[in-house]
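Figure 6 in text form: structure in, sequence out.
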């Protein structure tokens, strides 16, 4: 009788690994059969997760015996699983089929998805907040008063450009460059008032222009962008300055242009003149070759104001 029971158990155990769900066993061998059934169930669960369309497989969780006799999940498996989630891109993370994972790993997936959504919302909110532009001082042709307008912005290509939605102006100042000027001309201050000073020097810088009329779109360059540098003396013997850069007009439609000046030539001219006024030694001025065609006085706002120094250094 014992041999018959043993054979029945041996015949039934292989059936478990072929996927049979219903087993009929004798009560004598029932505990062993249940352990085998649990092993088959775990194996099937791992195979189904691996063969699914998800790119992340289930990490088996090792179980430790607690002092009171119950089993607890080891934290190392969840830690590894969490690291793999953090290394996924957002698309792969969202494609994970959460039902294929145990409860602890489902919680980690939900946490990582919520974290990614929060980061995306924060980035979108920061992108929508406009950055306040630097200001400059400008003047219109019909009025002698100065007003604050959207000023030119500094870029990494050694230029400062004026591209605003409003109408372009006759001339501009660039106070945002003062922090660079003061590095080589220590102690000078910037004066944003459009008034005559103790010193004045007419020079020119390099730049390019784009017509402000939308239907025109003409572009041009100039090596003679009229610039007037003025110096102011204070009782404390401090030297202040400003530099007016004059705009140019389009030869096609006579509209004012949007300026893009060379920051390098602007700084070179201003710093050189400030050092001369302070009786400091300066190097010989080196003129750059900037081929832009002949300078047309009728299109130069500096020429119209009598402030165009074509050969000034």
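Output sequence:
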């Amino acid at each position: 009788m014992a041999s018959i029971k043993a054979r029945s158990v041996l015949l039934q155990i292989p059936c478990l690994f072929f996927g049979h769900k219903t087993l009929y066993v004798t009560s004598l061998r029932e505990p062993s059969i249940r352990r085998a059934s649990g092993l088959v169930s775990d194996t099937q669960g791992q195979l189904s997760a691996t063969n699914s369309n998800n790119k992340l497989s289930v990490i088996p969780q090792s179980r430790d015996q607690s002092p009171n006799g119950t089993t607890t999940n080891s934290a190392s498996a969840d830690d590894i699983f969490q690291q793999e989630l953090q290394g996924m891109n957002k698309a792969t993370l969202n494609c994970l089929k959460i039902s294929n994972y145990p409860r602890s790993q489902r919680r980690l997936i939900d946490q990582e998805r919520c974290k990614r959504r929060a980061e995306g919302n924060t980035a979108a909110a920061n992108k929508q907040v406009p950055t306040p532009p630097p200001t400059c001082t400008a003047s219109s042709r019909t009025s002698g008063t100065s007003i604050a307008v959207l000023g030119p912005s500094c870029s990494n290509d050694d230029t400062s450009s004026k591209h605003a939605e409003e109408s372009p102006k006759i001339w501009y100042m660039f106070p945002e460059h003062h922090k660079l000027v003061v590095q080589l001309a220590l102690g000078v201050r910037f004066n944003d008032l459009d008034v005559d000073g103790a010193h004045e020097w007419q020079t020119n810088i390099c730049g390019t222009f784009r017509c402000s009329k939308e239907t025109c779109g003409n572009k041009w360059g100039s090596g003679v962008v009229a610039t007037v540098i003025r110096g102011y003396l204070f009782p404390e013997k401090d030297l202040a300055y400003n530099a007016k850069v004059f705009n140019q007009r389009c030869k096609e439609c006579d509209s004012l242009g949007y300026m893009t000046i060379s920051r390098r030539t602007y700084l070179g001219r201003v710093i050189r003149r400030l050092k001369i006024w302070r009786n400091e030694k300066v190097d010989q001025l080196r003129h750059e070759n900037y081929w832009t065609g002949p300078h047309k006085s009728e299109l130069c706002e500096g020429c119209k104001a009598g402030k165009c120094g074509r050969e000034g250094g």
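Caption detail: The mean pLDDT is 72.
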